[in-house]
Amino acid sequence: MAKEFTSGAVICQSGQPFQFLHMIVKGTVRAVYSDGEFFLDKGDIIGLCALQHDSYVFTYIAVDDVTLASFPYKTGKLSDLLSKKPDFTPLVVKSGLKQMRDVMEAYELTKYDCDSLYRYLTDSYKEYCTFCERYSISPRLLPELENLSPLVLEEDIPAWLTDYYENMAAILTPALSASKVPTCHFVNGLLMKTSLDISSIMSVCHIMYDYKADLARVLMNENRLDLFDLYTSLLSRIGHGQEDSTAVIAAAGRMMLHLESTGSIDRTLYETRVREYKEFLAALEENGTGAAEGKPEQTQNADAIAGSLNAILDYARCEPETADAFRKQITEYKQQIDKNATDDANRKLRLSLTKTFYQVYVSAFKESLKDSGIPTVVKMFFLFGYVDEELAGRENASYLYSIAERFPSSPENHVYTVYEWMKAIYEGRKEPSRNEFDADYTAYIHELKTTGKITAQKEKEMADDKSAKVLFELENMFPLVNKITFGRLTTFCPVFSEHNVLKDLEKSLVTAEKANAALHEIRALDFGAYYRETFYSNPEIGIAKETVNVEILPDIILMPNIGIRGVMWQEIEGKRRTTPARVMTSVFQMEDLMSTIARLTGEYRWEMCKRVQGARWNDLSEPSLTSEYFDYIQFYKKNHDLTPEAKDKIKSAMQKAKNNYKEMFVRDYVTWVLYEGAGSPRMNKVARNILFTYCPFSKAVREKLKANPLYKEILERYDIKNSQKLHHMDNLYQKLNKGSAGIPDEIATQRHFLES
């Protein structure tokens, strides 16, 4: 059966059911996979790489006008086809060996690219640090680079495989040329093994492609926390006329060449960033000085911020030895050119400085409770971890001063600065958070009594002691979460330092407006994210027990650091399911805030489901978000609804997530709301079904997705179930309208929820 395809036509799509082998009679075909391609010509066979699969492994596209001869194929039945068509055998063997060679070459090239790109990144960062040292500039750390390590393949292909197939080709090619055709059983075995080996190689390649994409993000990413920004920012600091400016410009030029050849980089992002750099470079050359010299430093608050450290210590009234130690530690820290150094001396300095910082913070907070007119510099200390104008950079310090008096938080709308949060606990409006051992304040003081550290009478007194409660928060949640949200655990230091400023402060500042806007966007996609099921009963009007959903928005607490992470600390307060979750993020968030809030919502979704399901959170006999997702990841290798490529991606993702099921789900959730919610499918069929079942999109988003066939089945299923619930609600409305009590707010809210 002959088939014709014009240039550019897709012959077979990856994941499409594998029902035919196609021999190329005329033309050239591209075999396309995640990060590469190879070419098939006249006499080659399409589909040999998928002989033991139910679907095609690659996507095949016609390069020019192509004619194919097609042969029906059933998985594992190649020998039947060969026995019927012996003339087909030499072509199948030659094409199979050729495709194996092409795949092996792709594997070797990808491995080389990964190793060389990693070396380039580490060498470039070392060079950047050398430049910084020369100009007494504290080098910035890159979060993405900090988390990278050399490529390690836990399940690499055996070293002998290349030689095996090279020798097999050397043996068989002369035989086939001499028309000495091997038996169909030998060919069947050879090609079945080849197909399996190609699958194994591509599985390793997919892992390397993901690794290479991670490396590419270090070079350039949408958050500008990248190597390219380090070099361009450094150039603005040292200026055009310095001796090393030429070397920095040359290094940035080499980086652009790497970026140009890296397929993982978004082209629009690349072009925008390069254009900005060239414009900056032109301005720099024209002025002949650094950008910093051409921009006058903010000085309007210079007098007010002078001597900040002494002002803070005077206010705190801490012990003299504590104050002296803090001054000494800050002075020593300021003198370190590389404040991220990991040698013992620097590590010990950061640890001792961290300990003293919290001692000063607690003392200052206690003093503030008696003061209605807290000095602005002290507010900067509370809100941002600010202690010294030189350490912060005078321009940064001036900006902090300008916003400290009227910081744009909003406790009434669930967004608190850390100081406002501590005040809320002190005033009894909030209860302390759980500690790192998941014990709340009540459990903590009970443990003290049980272990004989306090008496029963003392336990009773402490239960209502507002000072003890806020001290528990200051000594437990605060230090730990401050470190976690900072994100770079090995180099953490709680004081505000200029070297941690990776982006413009004003743009990275998390205000109540920004936080709530991001949260609103997530809720507009995943409308049920913060709704919780509860029961409503009102026997007087005939409602025995109705399931209703109530939205309870989280408390967002802004930690005083320049960080890259958020953390969902607890999903409820105590045992009451109708209390807000507590999520924390840095007050200056270096990462994209929308992505951070999406991630926190995913964490909340997972933990809240575990809370509701209890010990049976992973028991599939009680279907839930966590149980179905756990089952999906645990048994993905046996799932027939997943393509080989999908399985490879899950395997790679599991390695990145260190086999953590919650982390896997959170990553999928972020993809779900930010990409699938925008109409850009990126998930496999199984994960998409689970997410749609338990985190369905809002009505507006569902309407937009109706045109996409990927969502047709799950949308229809959802609409049927929701219609049944709405029908029940309609009947309830009719019943209630016959009475005189009207429609309770709880029932009206539930109807609105179902209509959403």
Spell out the blueprint of helices and strands:
Layout: E1 2-5, E2 10-12, E3 20-26, E4 29-33, E5 36-40, E6 45-46, E7 59-62, E8 66-72, H1 78-84, H2 89-134, H3 143-146, H4 161-177, H5 184-219, H6 227-238, H7 245-261, H8 267-287, H9 291-294, H10 302-305, H11 308-316, H12 320-335, H13 344-368, H14 376-384, H15 389-392, H16 394-404, E9 415-417, H17 418-426, H18 441-450, H19 456-463, H20 466-475, H21 477-486, H22 505-508, H23 512-525, E10 531-538, E11 543-551, E12 555-563, E13 566-570, E14 582-589, H24 593-613, H25 625-634, H26 644-656, H27 661-674, H28 685-694, H29 699-705, H30 712-737, H31 745-755
Parallel strand pairs: 9-12, 12-14
Antiparallel strand pairs: 1-8, 2-7, 3-6, 3-8, 4-5, 4-7, 10-11, 13-14
Helix pairs in contact: 1-5, 2-4, 2-5, 2-6, 5-26, 6-7, 11-13, 12-13, 17-20, 18-19, 23-24, 24-27, 25-28, 30-31
